[in-house]
Predict the structure.
Amino acid sequence: QVRKRLEAKEEMKNAYLFQMRAKEEKALRAREEEERIRVELMRKFAEDDRLEQMNEHKRRLKLEQHRREAERLVELRREMYELARQQEREHVEKLRDDEDQRQVVIEEERQRLLREHAAELKAFLPKHTLENMEDYEMLFGR
C-alpha cells in the first residue's frame, strides 16, 4: 500500500510537470499569436488609412487610435487567457483538495475497521496492515 501511494504520488508529480510544460508551450503560442494579431491589425489599419487618403495630421491621429485599439484588443485577449488560467488553477486545486479529503475518509475508515475488528483478527492480519505505532498500540496496548 505504501508502494502504491508512492507510485501514485510519482504519477501525480509527472502529470503536474507535463501540465506545466504544456502550459508554458501554450503561453508561448499565445504570445506569438498576440504578436501576429498585432502585426496584422496594424497592417489592416495602415491599409485603411492609405485608402482614405487623409492628410498627414489626421493620418497620425488615426494611426494612434488604431494602435490603442489594437493594444486594447490584445489586452482583452490576455485578460481572457489569464482568467482561463486562473480557472484551471482553481480546478487543479479543487482536485487536490478532493483527493486529500478522500484520503482522510479512507484513513478514518481504516482506523474504524482496525478498532472494531482487528482485536479478534490480530493473529490473521496481513503484513503492513498496521501502518504506524498508533495502530500497533491500539491493537496490542502499550
In short: The mean pLDDT is 88.
